[in-house]
Amino acid sequence: MQLRYAFRLYPDTAQAAALARAFGCARVVFNDALRTREEARAAGLAFPTAGSLSKQLITEAKQTVERCWLGEVSAVVLQQSLRDVEAAYRNFFASLRGERKGPKLRAPRFKSRKDNRQSIRFTANARWSITASGKLNLPKVGAVKVKWSRTLPAQPSSVTVIKDAAGRYFASFVIDTDPGADAARMPDTDQAVGIDLGLTHFAVLSDGTKIDSPRFLRRAEKKLKKAQRELSRKQKGSRNRDKARLKVARAHVQVTDARREFHHQLSTQLIRDNQAIGVEDLAVKGLARTRLARSVHDAGWSAFVDMLEYKAARYGRTLVKVGRFEPTSQVCSQCRVKDGPKPLHIREWTCAACGAVHDRDHNAAKNVKTAAGLAVSACGAQVRPGPVLAQHDEAGSHGFSPEPRAA
Description:
The strands form three sheets. Strands 1, 2, 3, 4, 5, 6, 7 and 15 form an eight-stranded antiparallel sheet that branches. A five-stranded mixed sheet has the order 10-9-8-11-12, sandwiched between helices. A two-stranded antiparallel sheet has the order 13-14. The chain contains ten helices and 15 strands. It is an alpha+beta fold. It has helices at about 15-40, 50-60, 75-95, 180-185, 215-230, 240-275, 285, 295-300, 300-315, 360-370, and strands at about 1-10, 120-125, 130, 135-140, 140-145, 160-165, 170-175, 190-195, 200-205, 210, 275-280, 320, 350, 355-360, 405. Helix content is about 40%, strand content about 20%. Helix 1 (about 15-40) crosses helix 3 (about 75-95) and helix 5 (about 215-230) runs antiparallel to helix 6.
């Protein structure tokens, strides 16, 4: 399995300017390639090949007065930008044909210099390296200081430099993991658990454990509102507005990082302690359109389940998703009699058939475990789900969370 390990970068003033040039050149090449393809489509011509685009938009463009500054950055960065255009079109057409899972993708769009997130990618042929002093040496940028939160388990195949909305820089390395080392880190166990995700408690386990919801967004609302009010009062285009925008972005990333850290710690603990895990496949998009939308987004159930999924695949665990229409809150976990739907304010109920008194969430967690087929001990279960695609956000760094993401 491929994982991404991200580490915080601290470029000096000159290096930050060099990275800004690289971000800008990569964006220009991306937009030029997109424009060339759209013009060919409008004229009814075949799409130009990657080789012709590289020759026209990079090699020949460097000889012109309008694009001579493309030579100030590494050519690998520009080539990778062309590959990003190819991948964007390939995914778009696969989505149109129904060959790609998930929601339909839109056609590639032009990148703006005002985008809050910028990134460039260096592959092995760019000759980037990690120096003896622990700095990241990037071509035409220099040796950038890195905050190493751990050692890399293997030689990376590429590195992506990212600048986020809060002005922070990160280096994301792609690593091939060692299955033997992963198996040694997480030995087999004979435990299985069902998980009921909620808002009152973030998760209730079938063994009765209740994990409180941290409500990171709710706790930071006052600070966020104040920062947003200050931003709205600043004149557009002014430097004070840029400073206020950074303040708002930093407040938001603090919430995001804290939530991701919580998700990583909890998912790692559950994967370590249990050989098999059952979880309900919630309709998050539907719940996000109700009056509970803010609390649903604050909980981040989808991100948490995604973490469970790729960690289960990495460490040889079994993750079973129970259908969202399974009546886990309506069935008695002891006698299996369906007692009908109940309003959300009812947190305890008594089974009319057997007289058992149930905590609503604990009963649902036990029903999730049963519906997932995990009521019997899962000792020896070695079901390995399919590979998990890379996540949009990258974790596993200083300032992020301690677990890497699947790539």
